[in-house]
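Assemble and predict.
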Amino acid sequence: MKKVAVVGVGQTKFRTRRNDKTHPELTFEAINKALEHADIEMKDIEAIAYGTMDPFDGIYCPERWDVIAGGIGKSYMKISTGGTTGLTTALAAYEHVASGLFDIAMAVCTQRVGECVDAQPVLNTAVCPIYERHSGAGAISVAAIQATVHMHKYGTTEEDMAWVSVKDHKNALKNPNAHIKLDIGIEEVLNSPMICSPLKLLECCPRSDGACAVIFASEDVARKIRDNPAWVLGEATISDNYFAGDRPDLSHWDTLSIAGRRLFRAAGIDDPMKDIDVAELYSPFTIQEILDLEALGFAKKGEGKDYAREGITYPDGKMPTNPSGGVLCTNPIGATGLVRLAEASLQVMGEASNQIDDVETALAHAWGGTLQFHTLMIVSSKKRI
Amino acid sequence: MRVGIVGIGMTEFRIHEEPFFNVAYRAAKMAMEDAAIERREIDSFILGGYDNLGVGRTISNMYVAPAAGGYLRHEIRVSDDAAFSLPLAYMRVKGGLSDVAIVLGFGHSSETPVELVEVQSLDPLFHRDFKLAPQMGYALQSYAYRNTFNIKDEDAAEVVVKDREMARKNDYAFLQERINVDDVLNSEMAVYPLRKPEIAEWCDGCVAFIIAEETTAKRINPDPIWIEGCGWSVDNYFLGDRELEKLNSTKQAAERAYKMVGCKPADIQAVEIMDLTSDYHFMILEALGFAESGKGRELLKSDFPANKSGGGLCTNAYGSTGMFLLANLALQIRNGEIDRGLAQAMSGYGQNAVVNILGV
C-alpha cells in the first residue's frame, strides 16, 4: 500500500444559507482554498471524489453541475452515504492514491441544507416505509432515545450533556468558519427550548450551507508539496443493521467500538487516550459526544458524561475533543465528515484556528444513516505510530 | 498484483414489486454461491446506485448494505451508475485495504418517475425551466449526431433490431420482443428524432461481483476474470457547451482504460455498451475508438461484436445498467468466447462515463 498524506485543506464559511453563491460557486470556493493551502493548481489534481447528500440540496445529482468548479475532464466519482458522506468521500479519494493509480486526488463535499424546508422529514424517508417510517424516526429522535437510555442506565443528567454544548460553543468562537458562534454558559443551554426531550435547542446542531475540500497525495508528491503533511495512518467504515429496532442497546455505540478497534489495530494505536492527541467527533447532539468517547475507548462506559464538566475534553484538557466547535456548531450534513478530517489534519499540521499544543495524531469520525454507519480516519505527523 | 472477479450474481431485470432489499439480497447471495464463499469471508461492501429521488429512499445504501451482507463490515456507495463502483472496489483491493470485496449494483427505477427526478438534476438558474427529461437530452444529441453525419433513420432503426435480436437470446434481458426496421420506423415518435423503441425503457434489477486480490482470487476460483483496466471521466455540465454529436467523457475514459491495460481498441474482442438510444450506439463505439466520427453505423454491417447482452437499449435499470453490461461481458469471458472485452457506462446525458476492461 502506498503511503498517503493530506496536503491541503479548504473550507468555506458555513452559514444558515449561503445565498451569495450557487452550488458550484461554493464548491469552487472550497477547492480554491485547498489549492491555495497546498500551493498547487487545479491542473495538478488528477482525480476528484465528490460527496453530497442530494435530498437536502434542492437539486438532484448536484455533482453534475458542480463539475464546472474544476472537474471537467478529470476522473470524477460521486460518493453518498448519509452523514458519513464527507469521510467516505475522503476515504474514496484516499483509495485513489493508496492504490497507486493516482498521485494527487481531491475529496470535495458541498451541501446546502438551507435549501430544504426541514432536514428531519428528509431523513425520515431513509427508514423502511413498511416498518419504521411511521415512527417519525430522524436524526434528532434517535439521538433523544440514545440520551434517554444513557440517562436511565448511567444516571447521566441534563446538565452533564449541557456541558458538552458549552464547551463546543466556546471552541466555535475561535473558528472563523463555524456557523453558530455563541458565548454561552450552562444556564443558557438548560433554559433553551426543548426540541426532542431531553435534547434542547442548544444541544442540537444547526443546518448549514457550505463546502470543504481535502487534497491527498502520495508519499513522494506530499513531501514536495509541504513540510508538514498529515499522514493517513488508517481508516475504517462499518454498517449496522438497517432496522433501528433490531439494535440491542442504544446506550452503547457498539458498531463504533468495533470500527474503532479495527482502526486502532491497523494504525498501531495501543491506547487511544495516550496515542491520540485530539479528536474531531461527529456529535450533532450533545449525548453523541459522550457516546463517541465511550465507544472509542477515550472514556469507560458511563463515564463519558463527566468529561466536558471536568474539562477533560476542553482544548487544555487530557482529551481535547472538537476544538473546531464540532458538528454541534456547524453541520453541512454531507460535508460534515470531511470537515472533521480537515480540522484533524490542520491540528496535525499545527495550523488549526484553535490549535492544541503538540498534536502528533488526530482522529476524525462521522456517523450516518439514523445511527447505522460509522467512518473513521486517523492522521498523524508521523508516518507510523 | 492483479484484481480478479471470482463470483457473479445477477437477478432478473424486470419490474420488481417486492421489497427491493430482497432483490439486492438475491444478487449478493448468487454471487457468493457462484464463488463458493460465505458472507463472513468478504471484508468490504462497495455499492453502486442512485439515492433518494432515484430509488425512492434517502441514503439508499442503508437498506442495500445489510441486504448485500454488509452487517458489521466496511461499506461505501458510489452514487451513480454502479459501473463506477467497480473502479472504486478495484482501488481498495489494489491498495491492500481489502482482500475480498463485493461490488453490488442496484437499480430500482420503478419506485420513482425517473423523468421527473432527472429534471431536478437541472440547475435552477439556466436549465430547469426547460424541463429537459433524459429522453429530451438524448434527442438533442441524436438530432445533432444525425444532422452532422447524415445518419438516416433506417440506420438508427437497425440498432434496435440488432440489440433486440441479441436480447432475445439473453435470459436476463428486459425487452426481448422481436422487432424489424419497419416496426421501428412506423412506431410512435417519442422525442424527435427518436421513436419509442429507440429509447431504453426503465426496469429494476441487481448485479453483484465478488472480487479479490490475485492470490486469494486464484484460491477461490482457478479462472478469475481479471480487471485489466478502468477509466472514468466527466464532461461539461452545460449541454450548450458540449459537442452534442460526440461523447467526450467516454472517449477520455476509454483512453485511460486502454493506457492502464497497455492495449488499443483493436485488442478488444467484444464490447458491452450503454446505448440508451439508437444513436448512442454509434456515438459510443466511435468514442471508444472503434470507428471514426460518423462512421459507427458501418460497424453494424460488419458484425462487430457489440452488445451480446442486448445492450442498454434492451435492459436499463437506472443505477445498475452498467453492472448488467459488465456481468454479461464477464460471462462471455468465463464461457471462453473472448479473452478480453470492454464495458462502457454513462450517466447524465453522457456527461459522466466509465470504461472497464476485463480479460483472462
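Chain B is about 35% helix and 20% strand.
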